[in-house]
Design goal:
This is LAMA1 protein. The chain is mainly β. It has strands at about 15, 15-20, 35-40, 40-55, 60-70, 75-80, 85-95, 95-100, 105-110, 125-135, 135-140, 145-150, 160-165, 185-195, 200, 210-215, 220. The strands form three sheets. Strands 4, 5, 6, 7, 8, 9, 10, 11, 12, 13, 14, 15 and 16 form a 13-stranded antiparallel sheet that branches. It is elongated and about 75 Å long.
Length: about 220
């Protein structure tokens, strides 16, 4: 067995002596146990998950769906960026959700701003769908649609061949369609990227790089 167990372990005794797990000599990728847990992946606000090491090609069309839960007003949700300007990005900035796309001719943004006292940062689950279809982009949050006009109608393809960064990204990685550097703090689940009829559900435990991310469970409520 070469991987860690996704579980809580407590009250370990060796030769009748209980181990002190409150002050370990060293610790790596171990979080505290929660009284109540939910399905999903917990991001502690310090890092990111990196998926598809060989590179993800956005090209002309992609549909992204995910659910998020947070109490923070800022945080990167997802970024795929080429070394040029072509890129897509999803982020929470000042409690708004922004979906950015650059097909090479310029950045385009769809912004969802919750109305009145409604908040996306209330610690409850919210459903997000971000769609890029050639030069059209749209954002649906909890069933509310936002679309934006695109003056760059000749430019239709985001030519990326780069990893998908979720919840943040390394300092040495360029992200052309993200304005925030803040790592996401909260929970994500059901991340699906669909191209045509092909839908891919991403399992964070299979990420090639995980920092500050706990893929198997979320605390039942933010502490």
């Amino acid at each position: 067995v070469t991987h860690s167990i996704p579980a809580c372990i407590g009250s370990v005794t060796i030769n009748s002596k209980q181990l002190d797990n409150e002050s370990p000599v060293s610790i790596f990728a171990v979080n505290k146990c929660y009284v109540t847990v939910q399905d999903g992946t917990f991001f502690d606000g310090s890092g990111f998950a990196a998926l598809v090491r060989e590179g993800y090609k956005v090209r002309s069309d992609v549909n992204i769906t995910l659910e998020f839960r947070t109490t923070a007003a800022h945080g990167v949700l997802l970024g795929i960026s080429s070394a040029k300007v072509d890129a897509i990005g999803l982020e929470i900035v000042n409690g708004k959700v922004l979906f950015h796309v650059n097909n090479g001719a310029g950045r385009l943004t769809a912004t969802y701003e919750p109305r009145g006292t409604n908040s996306l940062c209330d610690g409850k689950w919210h459903k997000l769908q971000a769609n890029k279809s050639k030069h059209h982009i749209s954002l649906i949050i909890d069933g509310n649609l936002v679309q934006t006009d695109n003056p760059y109608i000749q430019s239709t393809s985001a030519d990326t061949n780069n990893p998908i960064y979720v919840g943040g990204y390394p300092a040495d990685v360029k992200q052309n369609c993200l304005t925030s550097k803040s790592s996401f703090h909260g929970c994500l689940r059901n991340l699906v990227l669909t191209k045509g009829q092909q839908a891919e559900l991403f399992d964070f435990s299979r990420a090639f790089d995980l920092r500050g991310v706990f893929p198997h469970s979320c605390p039942g409520a933010e502490h």
